[in-house]
Structures are given as structure tokens and as C-alpha cells.
Fold this protein.
Amino acid sequence: MTAMTTDPTSGGSRSMNDAHRVLVLNSGSSSVKYQLLDMRDRSRLATGLVERIGESSSRLVHTPLKGGEPRERTGRIADHEEALRAAAEELAADGLGLDSPELAAIGHRVVHGGLKFSEPTVITDEVLKEIERLVPVAPLHNPANITGIRTAQALRPDLPQVAVFDTAFHTTMPEHAARYAIDVGTADAHRIRRYGFHGTSHAYVSRRTAELLGRPVAELNMIVLHLGNGASASAVAGGRCVETSMGLTPLEGLVMGTRSGDVDPAVTFHLKRVAGMSTDEIDTLLNKRSGLVGLCGDNDMREIRRRVDEGDERAALAFDIYIHRLKKYVGAYSAVLGRVDAVVFTAGVGENSAPVREAALAGLEGFGLAVDADRNAVRSGEPRLISPEDARVAVAVVPTDEELEIAGQTFDLVHN
Ligand SMILES: Nc1ncnc2c1ncn2[C@@H]1O[C@H](COP(=O)(O)OP(=O)(O)O)[C@@H](O)[C@H]1O
Ligand SMILES: CC(=O)OP(=O)(O)O
Ligand SMILES: [Mg+2]
């Protein structure tokens, strides 16, 4: 592999063997996940997570993957800039510093790309301005993404920085799924429509599921359930998104760790008029103090299951509400697709919680959906089937890898 590319620092050219690494940043509202990959074999060189940014209990865990033990830093990390600078120091300590000529590009997960961006995009001032313009519709995510981009630019101003948008995969949604039934003039003036998120994950997982089933993605209809701290469902027909549960912002749809998902929009007027809450207070309530945490005080599914097993009623009700919403979406998307070939679970909860998978599909035998208890109990990092041998619809667990997908798209863009 010796694809030639232009070296932005020297104006000369060099072979891909010189610059074959991609750093990926996935900045969330209070965390940053990062990975450094070698694109010659798509292997990971190092991964890391900085969590609880802005709190006194921040923690950085850095894992070098080619020798060396994981390292941890604790103590307050004030913001995403400090988080990224700390990550850069950890990488440098492993001889993988950002100053390396082997680094080809930095890929950023950007949550909201509006309607403009349906492809990975090299970040220019114009692109950054557009990402900034979209802050009001991704208030938990785009600001963190912008800080990540600015900090990475400051560390390596010569390198291409690439944005890979969560919304990109969903731009194929038909108009009847993307539009809300509100006054067209008002909606268009303010670009109010359903955009959808977690698209990089939904796209990657649907392709990996087709591989698992040994069939072309073009022939398959699937329902992908991305259940992390944020959670979304999508209906994918022939590899294209036709419907998804998140909307204008990542608040709509499923019950999440801290987000309510679907509520009657009149709840917001009621809270304002009757409870006297401000718009910002309502925003915080629905985005940060609702979902599982609002219902039972915990947002980690492991802890919730532990409490359920001990007979805790609040945790049990929170779990039931979470599952009920999930089941409604599986039913709705079965109707949208007409024929379902696969239902796929992914992300932290989807990949790890057998009780969630079992409960979500319980009673759906009429839809051809069933989970085999032994298969469901297997713990593995590999894509796998959990439906019974003779099932009409495949049920699968397929680990997502947003970072690998972002690295691939970033590298392809800077090398082609
Ligand atoms: N072993 C497990 N069993 C059940 N849930 C788990 C397990 N491991 C992780 N999770 C859940 O996954 C969530 C994080 O998922 P993840 O996809 O990493 O989310 P995000 O990318 O939004 O941070 C945790 O909040 C926790 O609820
Ligand atoms: C869009 C979104 O909800 O992302 P996350 O799950 O990372 O919070
Ligand atoms: Mg995630």
C-alpha cells in the first residue's frame, strides 16, 4: 500500500506508509473517548476514556494496546480542552504523540450535521461555523465536539481534521418519516424536522449484521437498537435508513440514561405555565434528570438490574418503562418495514444486558421474534445470533465500533 498524498507541512508528497495513523475523538457531553489506529491493518494502538469532565471526580483511563498496562489519572479535569491535552500527553508517553509524522489525520465524531452534511467532511472555518450554528439542536454534544476540534487544531494545525456526522446516515429518510406534522412554513423557516443520530453506529452495525448473516445488505430489512447512555432505534431497508427514533435533537424516542425520550410536547408548556419552570430548566430536566436516572436515581443498567434482582420497586418500574418503550418501537418499525429479517442489539446496554434483550422481545413470537436463553446468556465481543436455530427473524448482538468506522471514513477522505 503506497498511495501518495500531499504533505501539508512541506508541500511535498509522501507514501501512505509514512502517515498511516488516525486519531479519533468521540467527545460526549461529559466524556471523551479516543482511539489511535494504524490504518494499514486497522489495528488499535491505544484507546482512552476521560469521564466526568468538569467534576472533581474526573478520571482518565489510557490503554496502550501494543505493550504496557492501562494507566489511570484521577482528579478534576475542567473541560474538554484539558481532557484532550491530557490524552495527548498519555499518547506521547507511549511514543505515540500527536507530533508524529505518522499521524495522517484526526477524525471527529460530530453529532449534529443538520441537512448540509451527508458525507465525512474536511473541517474548514465554514464547516466549523455550521457545526456551531447547530449547537441549539445538539446542546449536549456539538459544543463538546467543537472544543475537541479546536483543541486538536491547536495541537496539529497542519493536519487535516475530518468531521463524521451522526446525522449523515439518516439523510436518506423519506420525507414522510422525517417531517413532523406541524405548520410547514414554520418548520421550514426553522429547519425543524427529524434528523436522527448515532448514524455512524447504525450504518456500521447494519453492514456487520449482513456479514454475520452471510447476505448482501441490499437484500435485508433490519431494526437496529443502539442502546447506550443515549439510545436510538432505526429501521434500515437495503442498507438505507428509512426511519429512526431520534428527531430534531437526540431527545426524542427511547427512554435513555438521563433523557426522557418521547413525551407529549405539551408537557413543556405545562411545566412552564403551571410549574413556573424556565426553558433552560425544562431542557435540563428532560435531557439530564429524566430517563432511567429520573425514574429510579440510577442510569447504569448494571446497577438497575442489581436493584431489580434485590426486589427494588422503583428500579423495577424504571426497567419496565424502558422495555415497554423499546417494544413499542420494535412493533412500529416492523410495520414500517413490512418484512423484518433481523433485529440487532448494539452499544453498552444492547451488547451487554441479556435481561434487556430478553424482555424487549418477550411476547413478540407473533412477529417471528424469539430469543434463545442459552445463546442470549453468552458473553462475547463478537457478533452473534441469539435467536433459536429455526427462527423466522434473526436476532443478533453486534458490537458497534464508531471509532473504527470514523477512522476508516477519515482515512479514505484524506487519501482519495
Ligand atoms: N455489563 C453491562 N450490563 C448492562 N449494562 C451495561 C454493561 N456495560 C455497560 N452497560 C451500560 O452501557 C452504558 C454505556 O453505553 P455506551 O454505549 O458506552 O454509551 P455512551 O457511548 O452513550 O457513553 C452504561 O451506562 C451502562 O448502562
Ligand atoms: C447522539 C447521542 O445521543 O449520543 P450519545 O449516545 O453518545 O450521547
Ligand atoms: Mg455512544
